[in-house]
Amino acid sequence: MPFTIQDAARRSGLSEPTLRYYEQVGLIGPIDRDPSSGHRRYHEEDLDNLQILSCLRAVGLGIAEMRVYQANRARGRAAAGEQRDLLLRHAERVEAEIVALRVHLEYLNAKAALWDARAQDDDVAEAAANERVQAMYPRLEAMVLK
């Protein structure tokens, strides 16, 4: 039983414009059309592909990487090593983002503590918080220069 674009969007979590775009750039499809109306008609296999793309998008893969992933999927076991490497390279980028986010979080907490100390009119706590903030600057600058 074919599904409408609305059904496909609802089941995949991707918007209708995203589904059209993914077809346009060759990530999916071509999608069958209803002969009388010309509307897209998605099949179970299409929905399976959309679910995979939705997951890849959720973890931050870009269009080019998704394209490679889909091509490797079509090649099956012959592309297993390439598929693994693609995913591990992205995992390394995610790890780097996590490190950066931890630094950002530490900085934000230090700045909040500084302002909390100021609100409390606590000079000792303010000085300690200010030292924490100052100590963060080299780490933040190093991230900007990467």
Low-confidence segments, given as residue ranges, are none
Number of strands: 2
Strand order of the largest sheet: 1-2
Q: Please tell me the CATH architecture of the largest domain by its name.
A: Orthogonal Bundle
Into how many domains do the coordinates divide? Answer: 2
Q: Care to give the gist of this entry?
A:
This protein is an all-alpha fold and 146 residues long. Helices cover 75% and strands 3% of the residues. It has two domains: 5-81, Multidrug-efflux Transporter Regulator, Chain: A, Domain 2 (Orthogonal Bundle); 87-145.
Would you give an account of this structure?
Keywords: DNA-binding. By secondary structure, the chain is mostly helical. The chain has two domains: 5-81, Multidrug-efflux Transporter Regulator, Chain: A, Domain 2, CATH 1.10.1660; 87-145. 75% of the residues lie in helices and 3% in strands. The chain contains six helices and two strands; from the N terminus they run ααββαααα. Strands 1-2 form a two-stranded antiparallel ribbon. It is elongated and about 75 Å long.
Primary descriptors:
146 residues; mainly alpha; Multidrug-efflux Transporter Regulator, Chain: A, Domain 2; 2 domains; two-stranded antiparallel sheet; 6 helices; 2 strands; 3% strand; DNA-binding
Task: Break the fold down into its secondary structure elements and pairings.
Elements lengths: L4 H8 L3 H9 L7 E2 L6 E2 L2 H15 L4 H13 L4 H41 L2 H23 L1
Helix pairs in contact: 4-5, 5-6
